[in-house]
Design goal:
InterPro entries: LysR_HTH_N, LysR_subst-bd, WH-like_DNA-bd_sf, WH_DNA-bd_sf. It is built from ten helices and eleven strands. The chain is of the alpha/beta class. Among the domains are: 85 residues, Arc Repressor Mutant, subunit A (Orthogonal Bundle), CATH 1.10.10.10; 99 residues, D-Maltodextrin-Binding Protein, domain 2 (3-Layer(aba) Sandwich), CATH 3.40.190. The strands form three sheets. Strands 3, 4, 5, 6, 9, 10 and 11 form a seven-stranded mixed β-sheet that branches. The chain has a two-stranded antiparallel ribbon with strand order 1-2. The longest helix has 28 residues. The radius of gyration is 23 Å and the shape is elongated. The two termini are 31 Å apart.
Length: 290
């Protein structure tokens, strides 16, 4: 049994797609398929059911997945320690974070990644969602944490992390804070503060216009901290993704009929030509308990 076989199997277990697993592994699909077949022969059992385009893990495959994941993580740590302590080598990655994603969603993962990859040094830069793909393709960024990652570019690989709802943020002492759900009529009566970088702005405005509601902002700003602090101090309300509060004193509630969500994902340039440490970081993103 070789480490490559374990890595190929884990990529297949994550994607349940031989083509996708081969791309993640940086090998051709026939190479990956042969490696999985050899692994099954060595273990004496089938790991993956193959039913046309659909694949799923067998009971044996499910049982060994966590064990293989532990082996892969151990190999990463050994390699990282070797690079860091024996050769004194550091690997630096520049990673973008879209400025509407709250730090607490990312910092826990960063702490985990730095522990798992001792040779890694991260440089984190704020970006807008629209800048992400261009920055990746130009090499200004190695990866980025993005909201509603843009699709359609075969050179960009995307790992979906989680989804979150859009809610109405208000001060904890606000008269509506005790409600389970806020009505559109109640929303229309509130002083509205506008987060200019909010990815939901156009969809929210369209939804309200269709119901003859026009929110006239009392305050507009690109600064998340400023808008949220103003809301916490009672200046008005704003729309905010459910995990994106960065100041104390906020209460978030759903608004009736306004059912909007966004996807948070990690994007990087795909292919085997990317740096090994970037591929390791991406694997940690995919397996993190978001």
């Amino acid at each position: 049994m070789e480490f490559n076989q374990i890595r190929y199997f884990l990529n297949l277990a994550d994607s349940l797609n031989f083509t996708e697993a081969a791309m993640r592994s940086g090998v051709s699909q026939p190479t990956l398929t042969r490696a999985i077949q050899r692994l099954e022969e060595e273990l004496g059992g089938t790991l993956v059911y193959r039913d046309g385009k659909d694949s799923r893990l067998t009971a044996l495959g499910r049982d060994i997945r966590s064990e293989f994941a532990s082996i892969a993580e151990g190999e990463q740590r050994v390699r990282a320690l070797s690079l860091n302590r024996v050769r004194g080598r550091r690997e630096t990655l520049t990673v973008g974070v879209v400025n509407t994603i709250a730090p607490r969603l990312i910092t826990g993962f960063i702490a985990h990644a730095l522990q798992q990859l001792p040779m890694l040094e991260l440089v984190v830069r704020p970006i807008t969602r629209e800048e992400a793909v261009e920055c990746l393709l130009s090499g200004r960024l190695d990866g980025c944490f993005c909201s509603d990652p843009m699709a359609g570019n075969a050179k960009i690989a995307t790992a979906e992390m989680f989804r979150e709802r859009l809610l109405l943020a208000m001060a904890e002492q606000h008269p509506l804070a005790g409600r389970e759900v806020i009505s559109l009529a109640e929303l229309a009566e509130q002083p509205y503060l506008d987060r200019l970088h909010c990815e939901f702005r156009s969809r929210v405005n369209e939804h309200l216009r269709e119901r003859a509601i026009v929110m006239v902002p009392r305050l507009r700003s690109e600064r998340e901290d400023l808008i949220q602090q103003a809301v916490a101090e009672g200046a008005g309300v704003c729309m905010l993704p459910e995990n994106s509060a960065i100041v104390a004193g906020l209460t978030l509630r759903p608004v009736e009929t306004l059912d909007l969500t966004r996807t948070i994902g990690f994007q990087s340039v795909s292919g085997s030509g990317t740096a090994a440490v970037l591929r390791q970081l991406r694997m940690l993103v995919e397996r993190h308990g978001w």
